[in-house]
Specification:
The chain is an alpha/beta fold. The chain has seven helices and nine strands.
């Protein structure tokens, strides 16, 4: 009898070794366009899932909703059904000038300014991706011709704190490239649970630009941000092909 996880509503029989982790459930529609043999799996709360094939490699996509707490639940339950490689494909606000709408940030470390990761281990524990998976993302992005930056992101819990501008400036001055809400939790939990993780962030707000204006533009149709979203999806999928080849020795066309 299949045992289904209580939140993502998936079982070991449905699992693939590789999973894309968008925040927005609607992003699965764009992921599906890149896959063959797509099958919708479940949709419970913020957790929508599908399975498909990319260049012969079986992959899943599971939305995590907003924030580290909900992402943590998804990661934990995916580990329990056997997923071993996880790449977040999310959005972020840039903290540095020169990072444009649609540019990708490949995160090589995260500031743990969130609550979820701290519930697992003291904040001096680093939030870093798997080196091999990050390298696969970098090589894939370069081959695809994506505009990308590699560096630190800050994961936080709310856009609407009273001193948001001052906090963002503080981290900007310390070289942080962008802000999201889930990467730190993904990196910490993945490391503690022994799975490979990486995070690719699509820039949807430029430094000192309007959050509301850019988010509205992002959801409105074709734009640099939508192109960035497609590029982060393809970068992650190509990285999975590279990792699958190393882990299984299988060759795919």
């Amino acid at each position: 009898m299949e045992e289904f996880m209580p939140h993502i509503r998936l079982s070991k029989e449905q699992a693939a070794p590789h999973v894309l982790l968008p925040g927005d459930p609607q992003r699965l529609d764009r992921i599906a366009e890149c896959l063959e043999d797509v099958k919708e799996l479940a949709y419970n709360r913020e957790y929508r899932s599908l399975r498909g094939v990319y260049k012969g490699v079986p992959v899943m996509a599971v939305s995590t909703g907003i924030g580290g707490a909900s992402a943590a639940i998804a990661v934990e339950e995916l580990v329990r059904i056997g997923v071993r490689n996880m790449i977040r494909i999310g959005s972020c606000g840039a903290l540095q000038k020169g990072i444009r709408l649609g540019d990708l940030i490949l995160v090589n470390g995260a500031v743990r300014d969130d609550g979820a990761s701290v519930t697992y281990v003291d904040s001096i524990y680093p939030a870093i991706p798997d080196t091999e998976l990050l390298a696969a993302c970098m090589m894939s992005a370069e081959e695809l011709g994506a505009k990308f930056h590699v560096g630190i992101a800050r994961s936080h819990d709310s856009f609407y704190i009273d001193d948001e501008e001052a906090v963002s400036t503080y981290w900007r001055e310390r070289g942080v490239l962008g802000s999201d809400m889930e990467t730190a939790a993904l990196f910490v939990i993945g490391r503690l649970r022994g799975v490979k993780t990486a995070s690719i962030l699509n820039t949807v707000v430029e430094w000192e630009d309007s959050l509301e204006e850019n988010i509205n533009s992002y959801t409105g149709g074709e734009s640099a941000m939508m192109q960035g979203e497609r590029m982060e999806i393809l970068t992650a999928l190509e990285a999975f092909v590279r990792i699958d080849k190393k882990q299984t020795g299988r060759q795919f066309v």
